């Protein structure tokens, strides 16, 4: 009989990896796990409670907010506030950064950037959705009030990052820069249990994930890479298969396990890319790099991109190392950009 290890036990155990750790980061990860369970409960019974559909409000990206976007946002922010380790939250659903003001959180050492509900377009149709989170140390001193500048840090500054995928089972996958581990929620004990230790993404894969509906608007390099994936060539296991769920977390989770590449390039509608650097691209790039994969904007490593705005967008090529290298090669050849532009978008 295998011994079950819960997320809480694992986090405490791994704390030993950080000699100066006082448990603050561990408690912060615990708080995120608690909020994830509460959100999971609502998602699981979404059809039975009044949580489906539009909230009637629009977020800073101009997207109409779903009731579950709002619900998830409130649950994560409230768990972080009462936990006391986080002093400021940047969320997809809040235009401004959210100052956490509880007695404890004022002195919190950490900043959390979050996409509370990823894949919102899939909520009503019972397709996997997710949550992404990114954790940084604050830059302002605890005697000062934290502010937006605390969030404008490169992805390389992340101390931890992860995601939750609410699918056929619910999993929490995270890294603190020492590998990637996955935990499956066991509803019978209400605990995330270690199910995928030391996750590694295969260096090669046969899955490509991109919304081909926008094909005509893609840069030439992306078009060439799609054609490359579709060529018949037994030796290189092509044609690859196309899989696109439309929830970045779910597409990425599949590719992390099976091998594959996820691409969201620039399009006419999103000349800077659609996905948000701070709370979508950076946390997933940290995970994939820690699992042995790559994440770039076609030219530059996602984690090295300068962050100037909380809701900054970027295009992204992420997944199995050799597939991302191939896509980059196509971009260099067919959609070259001057290095100065590299950190914006291609
Ligand atoms: O419908 P499109 O343009 O392919 O976009 C799908 C992408 O947009 C997203 O839904 C954006 O995330 P949100 O749902 O958090 O806004 C990603 O999860 C997904 O990969
Ligand atoms: Mg999202
Ligand atoms: Mg979202």
Short description:
This protein is α+β, with helices and mostly antiparallel strands. The protein is built from seven helices and 15 strands.
Offer a few descriptive terms:
single chain, 346 residues, alpha+beta, Fructose-1,6-Bisphosphatase, Chain A, domain 1, D-Maltodextrin-Binding Protein, domain 2, 2 domains, five-stranded mixed β-sheet, 7 helices, 28% helix, globular, disordered C terminus, carbohydrate metabolism, fructose 1,6-bisphosphate 1-phosphatase activity, FBPtase
Q: What do you see in this structure?
A:
With 346 residues, the protein is α+β, with helices and mostly antiparallel strands. It has two domains: 190 residues, Fructose-1,6-Bisphosphatase, subunit A, domain 1 (Fructose-1,6-Bisphosphatase, Chain A, domain 1, 2-Layer Sandwich), CATH 3.30.540; 128 residues, D-Maltodextrin-Binding Protein, domain 2, CATH 3.40.190.80. Helices cover 28% and strands 22% of the residues. The protein is built from seven helices and 15 strands. The strands form three sheets. An eight-stranded mixed sheet has the order 4-3-5-6-7-8-9-10, sandwiched between helices. Strands 12-11-13-15-14 form a five-stranded mixed sheet, sandwiched between helices. The chain has a two-stranded antiparallel sheet with strand order 1-2. β9 and β10 form a beta hairpin. α1 packs antiparallel against α2, α2 packs antiparallel against α3 and α4 crosses α7. The chain starts with 6 loop residues before the first helix and ends in a 12-residue tail after the last helix. The C terminus is likely disordered. Bound molecules: 1,6-di-O-phosphono-beta-D-fructofuranose (FBP) and magnesium ion (2 copies). The site of one magnesium ion has 4 residues, from β5. One magnesium ion binds next to β5.
